[in-house]
Amino acid sequence: RERKAYDARFESAVTTDSHRIEVCANLGNTAHAKDAVERGAEGVGLLRTEFIFMAHPDAPDLDTQISEYREAFDALGHDRPLVARTLDVGGDKPLDYWPIPQEDNPFLGLRGIRLALTRPEVLETQIRALLTAADDRPLRIMFPMVKDVAEFHAAKAIVDRVQQDIKAPDVQVGVMIEIPSCAILAPTLAKHVDFFSIGTNDLTQYTLAIDRGHSQLSAQADGLHPAVLHLIKMTVDAAHAEGRWVGVCGELASDAQAVPVLVGLGVDELSVAARQVPMVKARIRELSMADSTQLAERILMLPTAADVRDALEDM
Ligand code: PEP
Ligand code: MG
């Protein structure tokens, strides 16, 4: 019996009407990849590489980064993908050795891919380290805080250059959907990227104009706000029209009330803290895709996040 219970963790999450949703883990530390696998994660859906940079007094060099990333690839093996988000600093994530000039609005300033593109050599070293560490294991590279296709192309050009240089195999390259402009222009963007991963923490912040860490307002920064859900729907529909997959890697993915809504909107993958993987898988197994789709359609008609929460509570 005990052995059976143990194995259930490694089974995929399939709805009652046979629709599979991939459940992956978010990591800030590659040493935790083994634990994520043991909890049933089917891959890493978001490696927050900035934490690796923050753990060093200076930018980690190529070899240091290779050995850090390799630890995660070794734990994941050949069958579980790793989505590595390139360095995402600025805004709420300072990096001591990368000072950013004083800005009136850091959340609207130099952060994410905008900041990384001001130091392309740092991005290039990171991409070289990721491609080298992956070897032939399934690496997916993802850029943070992208606002349009031009930023994606600028960052992707670095991947292409390094790939040619070291003759690395092709990998999927995608973007985070964290800025409303990307959700609105998802039909165009989807023609250029391999996948989207929706960062609902920042997407909610920028859609509702509420600082995600604000002491009084952050409770109102609810990813179940219908405006955010409409952007998620636009993203999923645009991606699927081009045959791309879509994940959600923000907090909303591990909100038990939100899981049926995200499944109903057609999201292909949920990436959550490793300890939440069993709960999210269990939640998916209780759902039917048909009911979730109907639920999502109804929820999209509601006017506020409170109405959405009330409706979900009533069910
Ligand atoms: C997000 O914004 O939802 C996200 C996953 O990125 P982070 O929380 O690291 O900003
Ligand atoms: Mg973010």
Explain the overall architecture.
With 315 residues, the protein is an alpha/beta fold. Helix content is 45%, strand content 14%. The protein has helices at residues 2-8, 33-38, 50-54, 62-76, 112-116, 120-134, 149-166, 180-184, 186-189, 200-208, 226-241, 259-265, 277-286, 289-299, 305-313, and strands spanning 13-14, 20-27, 44-48, 82-85, 139-143, 172-177, 195-198, 245-248, 269-273. The protein has an 8-stranded parallel barrel, surrounded by 5 helices. It binds phosphoenolpyruvate (PEP) and magnesium ion (MG). The site of phosphoenolpyruvate has 9 residues, from strand 3 and helix 10.
Strands in their spatial order, largest beta sheet: 2-3-4-5-6-7-8-9
Q: What is the arithmetic mean of pLDDT?
A: 96
Task: Give the overall silhouette.
Answer: globular
Helical/strand content category: alpha/beta
Oligomeric organization of the protein chains = single chain
* Strand residue percentage: 5-15%
Radius of gyration: 19 Å
Instruction: List SSEs in N-to-C order.
Output: HEEHEHHEHHEHEHHEHHEHEHHH
Helix content: 40-55%
How many H/I helical runs?
15
Unique bound compounds: phosphoenolpyruvate, magnesium ion
Mind summarizing the main beta sheet? 8 strands, parallel, barrel
Total number of beta strands: 9
